[in-house]
């Protein structure tokens, strides 16, 4: 792709993000879904989610929540009662205000139940410095990322989502996400920030949130993570939550080590874990 064409695509994407943000601004009170936003700007929900986060730094849902919070504060400053301000800002009940106050992984709720029931998943395969890379996604975000060999990787994907309605390859749709991942693995992109669509227990989400809080180039021990969660004896449970992370690069479980500083385990092999840690040290040293 020429530089001129890339610039045209960039400008087109930015215009779509601006239009989506304006629609959210106009409909703060009643709210607008990702599907409605995507239809309004003629993009797929997946593509819009990715572009919005790239240009705005947050997802459409997070932007909508921020706007509602802003309106809530304005209503309260103008003398509206708590109940009136809550509904005026577009929250269905006061409990929604407190739900949104909590910090989450920035993930959309998974679109499928246990086993991926009913999910429609696309995937792609590509060469990377660690062998073959598989990236799979629903319309809402990446749901699986793995390293290995083609036949093994495809088997693992089907085993992860045995009840999915559809799993098929679509290289073109996932090309932008894969390009970001490959640039990161090549050391030319400081971080990868893609929308996710994951199944998780409440405890797994807490562990994964702690993993996301570890800066690139740094590590934490399983014990340190457990202590931050208020579970000083919970390092084994933390280790299990790391081992079940289906997007091991995007949620950086490779940054979790044994208490003695050893590598511990890694779903995609210890050599890859060590290589990822070395890569991130080099990137942060350059920065």
UniProtKB/TrEMBL annotation:
Swiss-Prot/TrEMBL catalytic activity: a 6-O-methyl-2'-deoxyguanosine in DNA + L-cysteinyl-[protein] = S-methyl-L-cysteinyl-[protein] + a 2'-deoxyguanosine in DNA; a 4-O-methyl-thymidine in DNA + L-cysteinyl-[protein] = a thymidine in DNA + S-methyl-L-cysteinyl-[protein]
UniProt domain HTH araC/xylS-type: residue ranges: 18-115
Pfam families hit by this protein: DNA_binding_1, HTH_18, Methyltransf_1N
PROSITE patterns named among the record's database cross-references: HTH_ARAC_FAMILY_2 (PS01124)
Keyword Methyltransferase: yes
A GO term, aspect molecular function: methylated-DNA-[protein]-cysteine S-methyltransferase activity
Protein known as: methylated-DNA--[protein]-cysteine S-methyltransferase
Source species taxonomy: Bacteria, Pseudomonadati, Pseudomonadota, Alphaproteobacteria, Rhodospirillales
